[in-house]
Design brief:
Helix content is 37%, strand content 19%. With 323 residues, the chain is α/β, with parallel strands linked by helices. Strand 2, helix 2 and strand 3 form a beta-alpha-beta unit.
């Protein structure tokens, strides 16, 4: 067991899978000598060479399309899109083609590719600070992963690379430096399995990605007031493992859904609907939701921080639903 950053956990996953399987290669903007916008691929080109770590032009649609073609042809590409905002340019390739290939050809073709991208903010202005996971999670045929710990980041990236389906793998910009324990050896975390990150009996917090860390911080504050929150980390948004969420709500009788996205039409709305349908008789209060304020994210740091959800917002939502 080692304590490493999420950035290092991702790099280890890429390196180990490239060594394990010669079909795995990386492609994306500035991922070679520069090491990637967030330094996840730094040093890999020196060890594994230009054929395995390929710099590409600034053309996200081409990157996704080339990765899809390579996957159909028997390779295992891991394509990096610098930020999730630029992934909008890949929607035709990913939604109209990669997601539907297996279905439209009667199972004869699979598209074993990974599209890595960073979501989040950091005074990057409104068009570069979004969390758009709900767009990809909407479409059958894609798998969508959004881990919030070092162990899950490494284990789920390895699982994504080995998967036969196209996987959208989302990383949060503010989490790359977060440290956590990661098991030694060939450590793989299955896609499509939620995880209980903290046990509790008073309220269920459902979350993923960056907001997992904020929820864990909130749970410590709540515990000081005698409130024990149970935290369910979805980790995967499609396929969605809702069973642990429902079982937790049946135990706690209260639910707060915590995401960084805008609440309207989001993943949090889907979870709220599932809880209301499958655990309605167990709820002692309406389902609460925590998310970003419904505005394009401002550039000014004080306004940016004000628009985003934090641990204090989770604390307030839990106390509101318990009252």
């Amino acid at each position: 067991m080692a304590v490493i950053t999420i950035r290092e956990a991702l790099k280890q996953a890429l390196r180990e899978e490239m060594i394990r399987d010669e079909r795995v290669f990386l492609m994306g903007e500035d991922i070679g000598p520069y090491g990637g916008a967030f330094a996840v691929t730094k040093g890999l080109i020196d060890e594994l060479g230009e054929e395995r770590v390929r710099d590409t032009p600034i053309a996200e649609g081409v990157i996704a399309g080339a990765a899809m073609g390579a996957a159909i042809g028997g390779q295992r590409p891991v394509a990096e899109i610098m930020t999730i905002n630029f992934a909008l340019l890949t929607l035709d390739q990913m939604v109209n083609h990669a997601a539907k290939m297996h279905h439209m050809f009667g199972g004869q073709w699979s598209v074993p590719m990974v599209l890595r991208m960073a979501a989040g903010w950091g005074q990057l202005s409104a068009t570069h600070s979004q969390t758009l996971e709900v767009l990809f999670a909407h479409f059958p045929g894609l798998k969508v992963v959004f881990p919030g710990t070092a162990a899950d980041s490494k284990g789920m990236l390895k699982a994504a690379i080995r998967d036969l389906d196209p996987v959208i793998f989302i990383e949060h910009t503010s989490l790359y430096g977060v440290k956590g324990e990661v098991p030694d050896g060939d450590f793989v975390v299955p896609i499509g399995k939620s995880d209980i990150k903290r046990a509790g009996n008073d309220c269920t917090i459902v979350t993923y990605g960056r907001m997992l860390q904020q929820s864990l911080e909130a749970a410590k504050t709540l515990a000081n007031d005698g409130i024990e929150a149970e935290i369910v980390d979805l980790r995967t948004l499609r396929p969605l493992d809702i069973a642990p969420v429902i079982e937790s709500v049946k135990k706690t009788n209260h639910a707060v859904i915590v995401t960084e996205e805008w609440p309207t039409y989001g993943v949090n709305a889907e979870i709220a609907a599932r809880i209301s349908r499958d655990a309605f008789d167990y709820l002692d209060a309406p389902v609460e939701r925590v998310g970003s304020k419904e505005v394009p994210l401002p550039y000014a740091k004080n306004l940016e921080q004000y628009a985003l959800p934090w641990a204090k917002d989770v604390v307030a939502a839990v106390k509101a639903t318990l009252q």
